Predict the 3D structure of the following.
Amino acid sequence: MGKDSAALIRLFGEPRLNVQEIYGRKLQFSGNACVLDAYLYPDGKDGGEIVTHVDARRSDGAEVDRASCVNALQKR
């Protein structure tokens, strides 16, 4: 939370999806353990976008712990 897209890419590599929305952006990162969706919106300071919400799930759609997913994606 609070990171910009460059920080996410440094942590997880290139996103599987990069979807520009009207008011923000969604980056999706995936690995064997899980899929992580990070939602970025303007921070109100310099116009940059930061993560304000994160969803994590297995590829079959079942929920997983967000912290465990982040750790798994960092190790790939």
